[in-house]
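User: My instructor asked us to take a sequence, write out its structure as tokens, and then describe one feature of it. I'm not sure where to start. Here is the sequence I was given:
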Amino acid sequence: MDLLSLENPVFVVYVVAAALTVLKVMGQGWMTVHRMVKTNAGLVSPEDLLPGPLNKAPDPSQLAVDEYVDRSRRMHRNDLENIPAFWAAGLLFVAVDPPLWLAQGLMGGFVLARAAHFWAYATKRRHEVRATFYTIGSLIVIYMAVHALWVALG
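Assistant: Let's start with the prediction itself. The structure tokens for your sequence are:
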């Protein structure tokens, strides 16, 4: 059986987890855009102050940090710092043919950890709460990479 085939249940787990995290990354970007449009604030580039159909009366104050918009932007940046490593480590993990139960636990755990991290960040929980979910996801990615390395070198 080809490991990178939908006939491989471990690869199916990866496809589902990767697709969900792609939607998370892209959705977070759209959440930021929604917040910018809703508040007419939180713009980041000087050219954003050029008049246009969505910003008919630009004002320099629109370039000031807006906490409502910036919180979503920080969540997006955090996703971009963490989720691509999962995509890479997850694919390497599939390539070394792990047991299905282990792939389900780790990949499902990563998706749940990122969902919990989103919840903690969006609802302004204490840093320790957010950091706990980050740590869980990070350790999962590290484990998958080390596991793949161990099998490849073993």
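For the description part of your assignment, you could build on this observation: The helical segments are 9-39, 67-95, 100-122, 127-153. Try explaining in your own words what that tells you about the chain.
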